[in-house]
Design brief:
The protein is of the alpha+beta class and 133 residues long. A five-stranded antiparallel β-sheet has the order 2-1-5-4-3, with no helix packed on it. The longest helix is centred in the N-terminal third of the chain and has 49 residues. The protein is elongated. The mean pLDDT is 92.
């Protein structure tokens, strides 16, 4: 029985490490996705400002290059929501917020101003990868 418990604990620790690594990889993917969608927009703005063309053509080029960013943003926010947890500064509760909370929250990097479901207070909640420390 004791051997079974040790084996079970070992397997649980492996699962936790796998989830952390998976979340870390998803957050890296989010950064790559954002950069890959932002580069065409930056390139289009540079080209439109450097090459003489009619204004409507420049607007079409910039708006067309904005399309990949607009398509990728909901996917990046879904990754931001699901990967890891948010840590409340008031009570220390770690939680996965609703998509709408992540979408509408003010943020700086991976820190968002949201309401904690446990204590109900608003605070700047930082993204953490572990459920417990």
């Amino acid at each position: 029985m004791e051997n079974y418990n040790k084996e079970l604990e070992k397997n649980l620790l492996e699962l936790v490490k796998e989830k952390e690594e998976s979340d870390r990889n998803l957050l890296r993917l989010e950064i790559v996705l954002g950069v890959c969608c932002l580069l065409p927009l930056i390139a289009a703005v540079i080209v439109v400002s450097a090459v003489p063309m009619e204004e409507w053509i420049g607007a079409v080029v910039v708006l067309g290059s904005l399309l990949p960013l607009l398509i990728a943003t909901p996917f990046a926010l879904k990754i931001e929501q699901k990967a890891g947890y948010y840590l409340c500064r008031h009570c220390g509760h770690r939680h996965i917020p609703k998509y709408s909370s992540v979408f509408f929250a003010m943020h700086t990097g991976r820190t968002r101003y949201m309401r904690c479901p446990a204590c109900g207070k608003y605070s700047w909640q930082k993204k953490v990868l572990r459920k417990e420390d």
